[in-house]
Amino acid sequence: MLTKKQSELLRFIHERLQAEGVPPSFDEMKEALDLRSKSGIHRLIMALEERGFIKRLANRARAIEVLRLPESATVQTPTRPRAFSPSVITGNLGRGRAPAASGGAVNDNPPVMVPVMGRIAAGTPIEAIQTRTQTIPMPADFLGLGDHFALEVRGDSMIEAGIHENDTVVIRKQDTAETGDIVVALIDGEEATLKRLRKRGASIALEAANPAFETRIFGPDRVKIQGKLVSLLRRY
Fold first, then answer.
1. Which bin fits 22, alpha (ψ -120 to 50), beta or left (φ > 0)?
2. pLDDT tens digits for 11-26?
């Protein structure tokens, strides 16, 4: 479930997109939610994106797309033309595909089948990623470009980032990441864990989103990035 502020911000962005075709500025969001600083808005935006409610488009100012509302898997198309329109990109199963530029709902495209590759620890690291166990259908708009795989979460070290035990996280395969990204990290070639990446000089910190867990710091030769979190599934 979303917090009250997360829900208020999501609806404010959605209503502005419907009315004007462009998302509000951070200053407008701050005023609408009666927050003191834009840093609070930034945290809310990150939480909504990590939980799959919105998507920010790279290299575009104020480019936010609402993917779904809390009570629905899809959203209505804005009544005016949108300020941005993703181009059509096709791909194979397991590859993300951008939504069509026709202005339809996000579920107009056929789903992408993403392989589930076992379990990942959001807590004490467990065994490295296992072999494929099944596949799950994902809306192409929730993925973006690249190859993807899914993992079942065990543990609660990322709970304050909205990631709970038994959730399924969808990961884009990549071997690099930026500070602040939530990644699948392979430690010493044996243990895989889901953590927020922090670069500290020549060292790599794997940071939990739960004060009960300590940040673990490693030399760069001990950690390999396996992918970056792009979406999350939860069953109630």
1. beta
2. 898 888 887 777 888 8
pTM (two decimals): 0.53
Residues with active-site annotation: 157, 195
Tell me, letter by letter, the H, E, C secondary structure of 180-198.
Answer: CCEEEEEECCCEEEEEEEE
What does each C-alpha distance from 16 to 13, 78, 80, 178, 234 come to in angstroms? 5, 9, 11, 30, 28
CA distance 163 to 8: 20
What Cα–Cα distance (Å) separates residue 232 from each residue in 22, 26, 53, 77, 87?
Answer: 26, 25, 10, 23, 24
The model's pLDDT over 79-122, given as tens digits with 9 standing for 90+, comes to 333 333 222 222 332 444 433 333 444 445 678 888 888 888 77
Q: Which residues of 131-168 are buried (b: 16+ CB within 10 A; e: fewer)?
A: eeeeeeebbbbbbbebbbbbbbbbbbbbbebbbeeebb
- Chain centre distance of CA 186: 19
Phi, psi angles (nearest 5°) of residue 191: -120, 135
